[in-house]
Design goal:
Helices cover 5% and strands 57% of the residues. The chain is mainly β. The longest helix has 9 residues.
Length: 309
């Protein structure tokens, strides 16, 4: 059997910084790449916490309950320049539907060329392409007769391709979100990656089921004139991994310029992320920078557009 070389394995281990699980053989999440665990959108990535966010098109991969707050058609495009010349692209769309919001997303993770080894570990002096593709769709809705409470569900399909092998898995994600204090505070919870096993050749593994809880606080317009502040905090517990914490904040000035900073522990190696955003009319451009010490810095950029009334 042909195997991916050591440089590729090191690269995939590095991707733990994004919630991707690539552990040893026989452990949860050992043989698949969770392309939605990376975190889409430059704004959410800078905050380091989005489970309790009020909700927008990016909520699809964090907490689908947030989709209930989509009030206009929205389009989101996100691009990440990752480690070792790899890259991650995401395209998402969301629109109001009934008493909630519906969203769809496509992702593509290009891992580039990696060395190929045979079953004995001998370098075959060959390279192979590796990439991952994902599709996700979800719906968030207001829970009847419970003021401020919303629920959400999403389903995803992930296909991994390494050399001549491929594997596919499907999964379900569930979430709830509760707003209180005139929607200033939102508390959210989600469980991700409930689904089928991922199988490459004879290696089989479960998706990394992950529990997440979060809270956000947003100021009201009259509290600080022309300035809106949001702070967020998350607790994340991936299956058979240590608990992780994240937190950060953003400041919007005159609803035009945003400044953000966030911090994550655990799988994020405890590093800071910094970002900025610019909004004009129905368009918003965001950028986030994160430096992972021994690894290369990463750059994220995303563009969101809103349509209709």
């Amino acid at each position: 059997m042909r195997k991916i070389g050591l440089p590729a394995l090191v690269l995939v281990v590095a991707m733990l910084v994004a919630g991707v699980a690539w552990a040893g053989e026989g452990t949860a999440g050992a043989s698949y790449l969770d392309v939605f665990g990376i975190g889409v959108g430059a704004g959410p990535a800078a905050l380091g916490a989005y489970t309790g966010a009020p909700g927008d098109v990016w909520s699809l991969t964090y907490n689908p309950a947030g989709l209930a707050n989509i009030s206009r058609i929205g389009l989101g495009v996100s691009q990440i320049q990752w480690f070792e010349d790899t890259s991650y692209s995401y395209l998402g769309v969301g629109f109001p539907r009934g008493e909630g919001g519906l969203a769809l997303g496509l992702s593509y993770f290009d891992l580039g060329s990696v060395s190929v080894f045979d079953g004995l570990g001998t370098d075959m002096n060959e390279t192979a392409s590796a990439y991952n593709f994902g599709f996700v769709g979800g719906y968030g809705f207001d829970v009847p007769n419970v003021c401020g409470l919303s629920g959400g569900i999403s389903g995803h399909l992930i296909q991994g391709n390494y050399d001549e092998e491929s594997a596919t898995a499907i999964g379900v994600n569930l979430g709830v979100l509760y707003g209180l204090m005139d929607e200033q505070v939102h508390v959210g919870a989600a469980v991700r990656n409930l689904g089928t096993k991922f199988k490459f050749d004879e290696d089989e593994d479960e998706q990394t089921m992950t529990f997440a809880g979060g809270v956000t606080y947003t100021t009201l317009p009259e509290q600080i004139p022309n300035v809106e502040v949001m702070v967020a905090a998350d607790v994340v517990l991936p299956q058979e991994q240590d608990m992780q914490f994240g937190g950060g904040g953003e400041v919007w000035i005159y609803d035009t310029l945003a400044l953000r900073a966030g911090y994550k522990t655990g799988a994020e190696f405890g590093n800071f992320a910094y970002g900025a955003g610019f909004r004009y009319s129905d368009f918003q451009l965001d950028y986030t920078y994160a430096d992972y010490e021994d690894l290369e810095a990463t750059h994220r950029i995303s563009l969101t557009m809103a349509f209709g009334d």
